[in-house]
Amino acid sequence: MDRTSLEKIQREKLLVAIRRANKVPFLRQKLREAKLESITGPSDIAKLPFTFKKDIIECFPFGALAVPITKVARIHTSSGSTNKPITTFYTKNDLRVWSELMARGLAGIGAKKGDIFQNTTSQGLFTGGLGLISGAERLGLVVVPLGSANPDKQLETMRDFGVTVFHAIPSFGLRLAEALESKENAMRATLKIRLALCGAEPWTKEMRRKIEGTLEIDAFNNYGFAEAGGPGIGVECIFKNGLHVWEDHFIMEVVDPKTGEQLEAEEEGELVITPLDREAMPLLRYRTGDITRIIDGKCECGRTHRMMEWMRGRIDDMIKIRGVGLYPSNIERLIASHAESNGQFQIVLSGIDDMLVRLEVNNAAWRDPTAVANLKTTLAHEIKRQTLLRTDVEIVASGTLPRSDGKARHIVDLRRIS
Ligand SMILES: [Zn+2]
User: Fold this and answer.
1) Mean of the pLDDT values across residues 318-345?
2) Cα separations (Å) of 395 from 220, 345, 356, 364, 371?
3) Tens digit of pLDDT for each residue in 161-188?
4) What pLDDT does 79 receive?
5) Which of 65, 133, 249, 347 has its CA 20 to 30 A from that of 154?
6) Cα of 190 from ligand 1 centre, angstroms
């Protein structure tokens, strides 16, 4: 679809989305306060008010609904770390659109009819469960809804059913890689896996290289968040140039997180998403808290949907150490660039502001004391150079750090609160 047609769709859908937003009390209030004159299309979007996560939390459980509860076909929640979960609602049509988008994403990474698809995430309230399954079914894949199970069980199921495509949270992708590494070499030959869709937590390209290298697959980044319906907002295509955001369903902006001013393409800031089709739970200019940039350029695949860069982290993930802001993903990137690392790490904060980076190395490196000592020195130096923070580095054997079944927890904050 050419950009002119895409923008025409955006314009028509945005006006409908504003009408729907007017049915939600807190959004109606915001629209009233904004004293809008005329909104003619996406170019006027900066006139619309922002929606924040706290707006949704405050009206838990049903206050964000734009339709009577009898029109709601399903409820999901986010797996977020706030006290109350973020609730998200779908009408029948919302579920249909969602499965279309998930099918589009899976097709974009190269999955096709005849592929056997295993979902390795929980199939309950988490949007990455049923959302992926319905998309895979829509595309005509054979679905193996295993859900959460340990890495060994996942690999055995992949082997038994000849699974070719799977979905995983990236940190679980690493655990699968680790599990395969611990097996005899012949295990990989019994597997037919070739593609993985990973998302739901920030990860890095270095982490992808580990997953792809060990599992011998292609892994793709998939983006979404529960508030806007879950995964299926943006996904990489086979060229891996960035995540195509489905602009016929979402308006994407990147803004300065402090001032809220719109930024130009290539400028890094906070991603703001306006979903255009959501009936049950419309949102206007939702502040995602995710840091990224819009990529200025075309993709070889020919899609006209613009791309965004991999998330650099979340605003809320940023930790302050001695007055310096640090994103755990920066540390992760440095660690993963060393072949000795298996990708598992922890940042331990203690005392007033002492930082210790603890990481695991693979078995070969662990048996080599010189390699361990070198890695320790090099990493401390690299972290200092890149983040301006002095840190201790501790290297431990593979399997030492706790593994969580959910999203990775990299920060252990034992600091005294003064
Ligand atoms: Zn592309």
Assistant:
1) 85
2) 29, 9, 10, 13, 11
3) 999 999 999 999 999 999 999 888 789 9
4) 63
5) 347
6) 31
What pLDDT, on a 0 to 100 scale, did the predictor assign at position 326? Answer: 83
Query: Residue 247 in contact with residue 202, Cβ under 8 Å?
Result: no
C-alpha 178 – ligand 1 centre gap (Å): 30
Report the C-alpha gap between 104 and 301 in whole angstroms: 14
pLDDT score, position 27: 97
Whether 351 shows a pLDDT value over 90: the answer reads no
Average pLDDT, the chain: 92
Q: How far is the CA of 300 from the centre of ligand 1 (A)?
A: 6
Q: What is the total residue count of the chain? A: 418
How remote is the CA of residue 110 from the centroid of ligand 1, in Å? 12
Which of 98, 148, 139, 97 lies closest to 118 in space, CA to CA? 148
Contact 330/387 with Cβ under 8 angstroms?
A: yes
How far, in Å, from the CA of 236 to the mean position of ligand 1?
A: 7
With tokens 């739901």, the residue in question is 200
Closest CA to 73 of 281, 246, 249: 281
Q: Can you name the residues that pair with 252 across neighbouring β-strands?
A: 273
From ligand 1's centre to the CA of 238, what distance in Å?
A: 7
Q: How far is the CA of 192 from the centre of ligand 1 (A)?
A: 25
Predicted TM-score (pTM) of this structure = 0.84
Ion ligand 1, residues whose Cβ is below 5 A away = 237, 239, 299, 301, 303
pLDDT of residue 321: 85
User: What band does 408 get if pLDDT is binned at 50, 70 and 90?
Assistant: low
Residue ranges of the chain that CATH labels 3.40.50.12780 = 92-316
Query: Is it the case that residue 68 has pLDDT exceeding 50?
Result: yes
Residue 216: the pLDDT is 97
Pick the CATH number of 318-413 from 1.10.3720.10, 3.30.70.260, 3.30.300.30, 2.102.10.10: 3.30.300.30
CB 293 within 8 A of CB 266: yes
User: If you measure from the C-alpha of residue 104 to the centroid of ligand 1, how many angstroms do you get, rounded to a whole number?
Assistant: 12
CATH topology of domain 92-316: Rossmann fold (3.40.50)
CA of 302 relative to ligand 1 center, distance in Å: 6
Residue 344: closest CA among 220, 231, 225, 203: 203
For residue 264, is pLDDT > 80? yes
C-alpha triplet 103, 107, 109: angle, nearest 5°: 125
